[in-house]
Design goal:
about 325 residues; alpha/beta; Nucleotidyltransferase, domain 5; five-stranded mixed β-sheet; globular
């Protein structure tokens, strides 16, 4: 058996499985305390792994980290959410402190691996996976193998800059299409317009009980589905940016399938997927218009853990 660990900015997940795509034997979730930094997360990992490796005879660990990593060196480059991870040798730490070999990958890359093999991309030769949540990330899989793992970064669709005028490195697809940016745009728009009519977001104000600071992408989606014009603008802005970005990926790489997951993708067909398909068709290289598919992810909250187990299975199942 192998242990898969997902390290995020708000949660930790631990799953045990055979590393071959068969169902998980167990799954545990723990909340992260951001103020405790990397040291607090490492202590949580120590406690949970000590328990799970005894009960399930774990012989190796796969880790999916929510941030840039050096997969070949087993090193975390940094976290955008939690302090203390800068240039951290995580694989070596696991080996020394937990007594087990480990392999490391970026969480979105491993989600791509899982969706390609046992999710929406099963049976496809090439898939590009996009996650749209707090941020926007990507992963590219061909013939069941992740691409670009020997590079400093790969498939970072969220960090594309939309257009020649996007000279600011923070002016990215992620800054327009992520869940955080959808909520932030709605908050700023409410403040600017004072929401004095339905056209200016009065329904949106009702959804957040008159407190724009409490807005989330999920609440904006609810307001948009109810017909709130400002909320609809927030989603239109996001889906146009993401559709443009996916069209660039399709034009360059021509994957058979684009799989989209993450919390924002659960906003539904009418509000999210249909507009993205329209924007892709608008921007993609015309000969490719009928040569790709776009589908929602299938694996849900366990997708990264499933990917970590597949990574571990690749590494050690033959030994």
């Amino acid at each position: 058996m192998f242990l898969g660990i997902e390290i995020g900015g708000t949660k930790l997940q631990f799953g045990v499985g055979a590393g071959d795509g068969t169902p998980l034997v167990c799954l545990e979730r723990r909340d992260v305390e951001p103020a405790a930094g990397a040291a607090g997360i490492l202590e949580q990992i120590r406690k949970e792994t000590t328990k799970l490796k005894t009960v399930h005879s774990v012989r190796g660990i796969g880790v999916g980290f929510g941030g840039p990593v050096d997969a070949l060196e087993g090193r975390v480059r940094k976290s955008h959410h939690i302090t203390g991870w800068e240039n951290f040798p995580l694989v070596r730490w696991i080996r020394r402190n937990l007594g087990l070999p480990a392999v490391l990958g970026n969480d979105c890359d491993l989600a791509a691996l899982a969706e390609s093999r046992i999710g929406a991309g099963r049976g496809k030769r090439s898939i590009f996976y996009v996650t749209v949540g707090t941020g926007v990330g990507g992963g590219y899989v061909v013939n069941g193998r992740l691409q670009g793992q020997d590079r400093p970064s790969v498939s970072e669709i969220g960090h594309l800059r939309p257009g020649l005028d996007a000279l600011d490195p923070d002016r990215t697809v992620e800054s327009l299409a992520s869940g955080w940016s959808i909520a932030e745009f709605a908050r700023e728009s409410l403040g600017a317009k004072k929401a004095d009519s339905d056209r200016h977001g009065s329904r949106l104000l009702a959804f957040c009980q008159g407190n724009p600071a409490g807005l989330t992408a999920e609440l904006v989606a609810e307001a948009a589905r109810s017909g709130d014009a400002l909320a609809l603008v927030a989603f239109r802005r996001a889906t146009q940016a993401l559709g443009w970005a996916i069209a660039q990926v399709l034009t360059l790489l021509s994957p058979e399938l684009v799989v989209i997951g993450g919390g924002v993708s659960r906003s539904g067909e009418e509000l999210f997927f249909a507009p993205i398909r329209r924007e892709i068709e608008r921007y993609v290289f015309p000969p490719l218009v009928e040569c790709y598919q776009v589908a929602p992810a299938k694996l849900g909250e366990t997708v990264v853990v499933e990917g970590t187990l597949l990574l571990a299975g690749n590494e050690w199942s033959r030994t």
